[in-house]
Design goal:
By secondary structure, the protein is of the alpha/beta class. 42% of the residues lie in helices and 16% in strands.
Length: 526
């Protein structure tokens, strides 16, 4: 295993210590240096994949192929499908790659990395196999938490001298998202593409903060850093701030009535909210009923500004949520809205017909214009799905039965949920757990507690959530779940989803084991 600073990304990924003769690679496209990336199927992984394809080298001598993964089995299925195709059609040349990237992964296992190594080495001619590299881009620390990496693996650090703190759990490095980590090693041909990459990194930071919580200082620092970077690019301005719209996710693409109904900020932070509250907002904003129930963007800009200002004064926030907004002609899209849309895209069952990368490409390349039928249709589809997605999340929260347990002075929230709709995607689980933790803390960031979701639908699984993870308050769940799966055959642990533990049978037996290991781990930490 090699630990390399992200500043050396270009030389490690794109430079080869040997000249490839013609027709060396078993592929129809011998002129290209071929790279394949497996990216984690969440908002951060999606944004990182988008940023990677903007790299200047993919416009010249290199070609990029990508494959989204949600769990370990997705990679095994890719390998199986490739091998099956080659067996059925041996006359068809298989794609050969000199580099394999694992982007944004939440964990790994030695068996998975060994399978990747064996498969991609087999596709190369014997003399070239020693030049294969498997590179991992992840923000989880400590590096060796999931075990030692094979010699062929490269793991990128934030810097050459990044400290590797020992820990009894997982925490994130200062980059917070893999997209912002990757950004440090990128080179771009055009400034507008650089601006698009910075914007994508901003979306990933918003996603991390809303779904998981990364700490106010780090969150604000990153957004300010990105704003400064994008403001210094030539050919701008590329961004503007729109603090007011941050209070209402989705208000840009729906009615004010719907936006008020589904906003997590209002539902969580306004303890006095009731059905009459929304009607009071309409009266205070001097809006007719048809204006309240029609598209918010149909209101005049003056009225929009006045309405948002009035609403902001009515709601008590424990923190501001400034955001970096991407300009497209005279309109812009608030990041928070985009983050919810991307989360919805990742809910495969609801949005199979929507191509996630294509939609992200449309936004970030300023192709999302009001007169485009295709883009307008995508927006309408995603808007409806996003509203349903968030409503389903809050429905799950309302059905949760909460219990509390204390370990060495640390509070644990246990939420048993039997949802009406599937509640399985990692982003949705994180959002539900984060909101429950936030409600119990009454909006006080310091008082937020760990949360354990026990979900029973078609499948049974546990999900562990830790707010504001850092080296002093790590995420202990992956270590606990990994231990349980090793001692209990009814439980299955997936290294790419280390905060999820699937189980069969009676959860009471698993809870006993879990609480014992949890107490031991927290006791060791102290």
């Amino acid at each position: 295993m090699s630990l390399v600073g992200i500043s050396h990304f270009n030389e490690e990924i794109f430079q080869l210590d040997v000249t490839l003769p013609e027709n060396t690679l078993k592929t129809p496209d011998n002129s290209k240096f071929r790279i394949i990336s497996f990216y984690q199927c969440d908002v951060d992984g999606l944004c990182a994949q988008y940023v990677l394809q903007l790299h200047s080298n993919f416009k010249s001598f290199a070609s990029l192929h990508s494959f989204p993964v949600y769990e370990e089995n997705d990679i095994y299925q890719y390998i199986h499908k490739t091998l099956s195709l080659h067996l059925k059609r041996p006359d068809v040349q298989a794609d050969a790659f000199m580099r394999v990237l694992l982007i944004g992964i939440r964990g790994w296992s030695s068996e998975l990395l060994r399978a990747i190594k064996v498969h991609f080495e087999h596709l190369l001619d014997p003399p070239l196999r020693k030049y294969l590299k498997i590179a991992i881009l992840t923000v989880i620390r400590p590096i060796g938490f999931f075990g030692k990496l094979p010699q062929e693996c490269i793991l990128f650090k934030e810097s050459d001298d990044e400290p590797m703190y020992p820990s009894s759990g997982i925490y994130t490095c200062e980059s917070a998202s893999v997209t912002s980590l990757l950004l440090k090693g990128m080179t771009f041909v055009y400034e507008n593409e650089h601006a698009a990459a910075i914007f994508a990194a901003s979306i990933s930071i918003f996603s991390k903060n809303v779904h998981f919580g990364i700490g106010e200082t780090l969150y604000y620092g990153k957004i300010e850093e990105f704003h400064n970077q994008i403001s210094q690019l030539n050919g701008g301005p590329y961004v503007s701030y729109d603090i007011d719209k941050a209070i209402l996710p989705l208000v840009t693409f729906t009615t004010l009535e719907d936006a008020l109904s589904i906003s997590p900020s209002i539902l969580v932070l306004d303890s006095k909210k009731n059905p009459e509250t929304i009607a009071e907002f309409r009266i205070q904003c001097s809006l007719r009923k048809e204006e309240f129930t029609s598209e918010f963007n149909a209101l005049s800009s003056e009225k929009q500004k006045r309405v948002l200002s009035l609403i902001k004064r009515q709601i008590s926030f424990y923190r501001e949520m400034p955001q970096l907004c991407w300009l497209r002609r005279v309109k812009h899209i608030p990041n928070l809205d985009v983050m919810y849309f991307l989360s919805t895209i990742l809910n495969k069952e609801e949005t199979q017909s929507i191509i996630a990368l294509d939609f992200l490409y449309n936004i970030l390349q300023e192709r999302l214009q009001q007169d485009s039928y295709y883009d307008r249709n995508v927006i309408n589809t995603i808007s409806k799905s996003a509203i349903a997605y968030i409503n389903q999340s809050f429905d799950s929260i309302s059905r949760a039965k909460l219990k509390f347990k204390t370990f060495l002075g640390q509070k644990l929230i246990i939420a048993e949920i039997r949802p009406n709709n599937p509640l399985s995607h990692i982003n949705q689980l994180e959002m539900v757990a984060s909101i429950i933790s936030n409600i119990e803390a009454k909006g006080d960031e310091v008082k937020r507690s760990r949360c354990l979701l026990i979900v029973e639908h078609k499948e049974k699984y546990l999900f562990g959530f830790t707010p504001n993870v850092d080296s002093s308050f790590p995420d202990i769940w992956p270590g606990v779940f990994m231990q349980i799966s090793q001692s209990d055959s009814s439980c299955s642990f997936n290294a790419l989803l280390p905060n999820v533990l699937k189980y069969k049978g009676d959860v009471r037996d698993i809870k006993k084991s879990l609480f014992t290991k949890l107490a031991n781990r927290l006791g060791r930490k102290r």
